[in-house]
Hints:
The longest helix has 42 residues, at 19-60. By secondary structure, the chain is mostly helical. Helices cover 66% and strands 5% of the residues. Strands 2-1-3 form a three-stranded antiparallel beta sheet. It has helices at residues 3-10, 19-60, 77-80, 88-92, 96-107, 115-122, 128-139, 156-163, 176-188, 198-201, 214-245, 250-262, 267-281, 289-314, 317-325, 330-358, 362-366, 387-395, 401-431, and strands at residues 65-74, 147-153, 191-195. The chain folds into two domains: 67-196, no CATH class; 214-431, MetI-like fold.
Amino acid sequence: xxxxxxxxxxxxxxxxxxxxxxxxxxxxxxxxxxxxxxxxxxxxxxxxxxxxxxxxxxxxxxxxxxxxxxxxxxxxxxxxxxxxxxxxxxxxxxxxxxxxxxxxxxxxxxxxxxxxxxxxxxxxxxxxxxxxxxxxxxxxxxxxxxxxxxxxxxxxxxxxxxxxxxxxxxxxxxxxxxxxxxxxxxxxxxxxxxxxxxxxxxxxxxxxxxxxxxxxxxxxxxxxxxxxxxxxxxxxxxxxxxxxxxxxxxxxxxxxxxxxxxxxxxxxxxxxxxxxxxxxxxxxxxxxxxxxxxxxxxxxxxxxxxxxxxxxxxxxxxxxxxxxxxxxxxxxxxxxxxxxxxxxxxxxxxxxxxxxxxxxxxxxxxxxxxxxxxxxxxxxxxxxxxxxxxxxxxxxxxxxxxxxxxxxxxxxxxxxxxxxxxxxxxxxxxxxxxx
Length: 435
């Protein structure tokens, strides 16, 4: 037998039905199934995300507009300033509700002799109308004695009926007579929807149409500012020490394990810790952004330390060797060479930690920031609330109008989170270096 024939006879023949080909086809089928499982999982996640966002936006977009009613308002001097002193205190405490009642009687003459009809008509106007008139008179006292057609905010009952969030019947809180007047104003063009400035310029309120997010936004800003000021230098310093200076022994290993475990601890545990240390032991003021920032610092520190250590590890070792080879001390090597190169990754991790902190509510609930606060905090020591806590408060309210306010607050919170995460992605792309 020739050498060629011997070679051909010793080679295994892989036919169509051989075991090797069957195993190969089985592997391909397994890979296709694995890819299908992955695509199916991503599709399910995107579906539920779309359902969530659609639900929030469909319920909350209407909160960014508000219904206004046009009334012929007369700034009667006998009602606003009967003594004619034009003093600030007198103008501030004037009977602006009486001015609105007179404007309603002028708009609907048939309610003048009907107390029930007059009371039902007054329910159509928000208490914010009184605030608007007071603000106008205080800004310009010369309005006293004049008349003008003004657009004043409608009540939440009218607003919900106009937006279609409430039924056009007595279940909306409006009587049949008030609903008839509402239809009359819609036909005559005396009722319009405008941008809801109250949502961004007012604090919290018991009246849904007057409730705003300004106090919560300012409280969140103060809390995040304190969190950033404390957690960034502490987290970066801890990461530098553990990664660059600390000797590798069982104590540093124990610290690393604890830091990794703290990153997975539920945030309410940090809230309990803040309640005990900052309020019960240190006696700091309750419901303030200062304590809120300290509690969120505890939540953010593990994430910042871990991300900073990862960024420091990503710096190539030859950078360190070259710096020390040129005579730099260990401190100079870290501060002048390693840290600047790792800073983009550190900043990205810090922003992600801040994004988590802005959405935390459990620690803030534990330290009392769930209190009803109307005024906007002027300093971090003033009582305040935060955006996620404001969502919690409005969601627990029984008023129908607070449903859309809750969704609108969630939209604003999601916008903040999207901006912060986009900033992190931008910093990573802009300063990232490939070695």
